[in-house]
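Input sequence (320 aa), recorded before submission:
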Amino acid sequence: MKDVWVEKYRPKTLAEVVGQEETVERLKAYVKAKNIPHLMFAGSPGTGKTTSAIALAKDLFGEDWRGSFQELNASDERGIAVVRGKIKEFARVGTTAAEGFKIIFLDEADALTHDAQAALRRTMEKYTNTTRFVLSCNYSSKIIDPIQSRCAVFRFKPLNPEQVKKYIRRIATEENVEITQDGVDALVFVAKGDLRKTVNTLQVAAALGGKVDAESIYKTTATARPEEVKRLLETALKGDFMAARNILDELLIEYGLSGEDVIKQIHRSLFDLAIPDQVKVALVDKTGEIEFRLVEGANERIQIEALLAHVVLAGQGMKK
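Predicted structure, token format:
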């Protein structure tokens, strides 16, 4: 198990990209025309943005794609200096590629400072004849409008559960990993459409040896079982605050969850409760408030117990 499965099973061509059919068809049209505009890939992590950019370069330039493709991670070098230096120098140099241009791929472009983006806008405009830019970001709203207007924007959506399950079973078969059905379901739950996280989690669980099941998935990702979180909330709704607090202790100790992890799982489980929508609205509102307090540095234990107390009060309100 020396290979890193994320890289081993990364699609090599656009035709192999999973779950982004409409995007792939549009990109294939660019490959067929042997020309592309500036592009911006936006979407959640692990949905295929970087993979699609590399696959696009391979399909366009063939075996010599590395000479016409420069990848930079904007979160590492996010200031104006890197735009005026490294990016500008690469952009201004001509190319021997038959297509007449090369590609600069800026991963995590939403991490660029405002000044760096302003400088990038001018560079994109000035060197269009020799260089095309492909920008990847999680939040397109953090990219300034002048850059967005210069790009063809592609939205990458999270993969649906069936696509993720198919990918899991393919890797498990090729790597001779025995995985149970509840293990597959747990992977889908944990990854939430992030295929990179799915593959990494599967490899870590497989490295432990033996059968990969739900228990091993939850343990390796420090994720509580959804039924445990649901039991926590249902106990609180019944009015038994101390019992709910004991369940919370079990989750924190057994799974090693942080306060933010607990809040996120509580948020997901709230929608599975058999309670009126009006109560769900109030609890989601309170959950958001508690999550904000945690991000601002409040005490985890006090805030989560305050949320449980609010759930207890909501349960008592339903009985009246």
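Checked by second reader. Residues 119 and 285 are 40 Å apart (CA to CA).
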